[in-house]
TrEMBL record:
Name of this chain's protein: rRNA methyltransferase 2, mitochondrial
Domain of life: Eukaryota
Organism lineage string: Eukaryota, Fungi, Dikarya, Ascomycota, Pezizomycotina
Segments of this protein annotated with the region Disordered: 161-204
Database matches in InterPro entries: RNA_methyltr_RlmE, RNA_MeTrfase_FtsJ_dom, rRNA-MeTfrase_E, SAM-dependent_MTases_sf
Family in the record: Belongs to the class I-like SAM-binding methyltransferase superfamily. RNA methyltransferase RlmE family.
GO CC field: mitochondrion
Keyword rRNA processing: yes
Entry's Gene Ontology molecular function annotations: rRNA (uridine-2'-O-)-methyltransferase activity
Pfam families, alphabetized: FtsJ
Annotated Ribosomal RNA methyltransferase FtsJ domain residues: 75-319
The entry's keywords: Methyltransferase, rRNA processing, S-adenosyl-L-methionine, Transferase
Signal peptide residue numbers: none
Length: 334
């Protein structure tokens, strides 16, 4: 017992004191009674990068556009792709309304905000819960869901209605009269929301041609391989910008997303508006190009300098939408 007391206990105490400097063990109390601390196990762990992560870090560290984007405060190097296409095709101007599909992390939206200020409006849609750039309104949801598309259209119509209707405050200032504004009561607000919208607002909703530029940087999302199925509006597991590494699969998925974006542009893009979409090259892109040429005056294939040479990605830049031509007209010509 003496050997146990003199030999083992001091070593245990030294272990606890040494571990305390690293882990700071606490003494717990149950109903005011102290409970002796248990031996502390200190484990050192390190994160081991996978092969693909290491290659990605090494490639980005040496890449000129990645380093420049970081220095300039851009969300990603993809901003230079849009900047190059804008310099060539003059996509943006002041006061435009721009919709950015698959906006996360937000580099294209940053470019759109800068090019359309001070009166422009940029709306981004993505599955990922990303922090939007300053000046960008965003909706987190699956763009392929018709409910989300209707939310975007309603938001654009509401914004256009507010923009076209002068506020009461500005009218009071113009009249030069001192008017005390009365806030509507809760009951009046509920009653106003239940009343059908006026004719002008209904016309805007039915027309729907409120967008000047539609941007699509989407790619087909990966299938869910773990966790539970999620049917909610926000499903950040999926993301519309991943690639599988299989050429045909990436090509087919990008064609579906480009057609979905083109259908949205057909519903919302003004006459004379522009459309830009990313796609992965393959046999079906000629059919998409044919549809674009039916809806727009000029259609160009672009492979920006900032796009990696080994990547199959390319971009269709379609400018100046034709009048009274929809996607249905070019898909099913009479």
């Amino acid at each position: 017992m003496r050997a146990l007391k003199n030999g083992v206990v001091p070593r245990y105490e030294r272990l606890v004191k040494t571990a305390a400097k690293l882990a700071t063990p606490s003494r717990s109390f149950i109903r005011g009674s102290p409970v002796l601390d248990c031996p502390v196990s200190v484990t050192y762990s390190c994160t081991r990068w996978s092969s693909s992560q290491s290659k990605w870090k090494l490639r980005n560290g040496k890449d000129y556009f990645s380093r420049t984007a970081k220095v300039q405060g851009l969300k990603s190097r993809a901003a230079f792709k849009l900047l190059e296409m804008d310099a060539k095709h003059k996509l943006f101007r002041r006061g435009q309304t721009v919709v950015d599909l698959g906006y996360a992390p937000g580099s294209w939206s940053q470019v759109a905000v800068e090019r359309t200020r001070p009166d422009g409006r940029v709306v981004g849609i993505d599955l990922l819960p990303a922090q939007p750039p300053k000046g960008v309104s965003t909706i987190q949801g699956n763009f392929l869901d018709p409910v989300v598309q209707n939310m975007v259209k309603d938001y654009l119509a509401e914004f256009a209605q507010r923009k076209s209707t002068p506020s009461r405050d500005s009218q009071d200032v113009d009249s030069g009269e001192d008017v005390i504004a009365e806030k509507p009561s809760y009951i009046d607000t509920e009653r106003a929301e239940s009343v059908e919208p006026d004719a002008s607002h209904q016309t805007n909703v039915n027309d729907g041609k409120l967008v000047d530029v539609v941007l699509s940087d989407m790619s087909a999302p990966w299938d869910q391989t773990y966790g539970f199925s999620c049917k909610t509006l926000s499903n950040p597991y999926n993301r519309l910008m991943n690639t599988s590494g299989m050429v045909f699969r990436d090509h087919a998925g990008s064609m579906d997303l480009c057609l979905a974006a083109l259908q949205f542009a057909s519903d919302t893009l003004r006459v004379g508006g522009h459309f830009v979409c990313k796609f992965y090259q393959g046999p079906e892109d000629k059919d998409l190009e044919k549809k674009l040429k039916g809806m727009f005056k000029h259609v160009r294939r672009e492979k920006p300098e900032s796009s990696r040479s080994e990547s199959k990605e390319a971009f269709f830049v379609a400018t100046y939408r034709k009048d009274q031509v929809t996607l249905e007209d070019v898909t099913n010509p009479e």
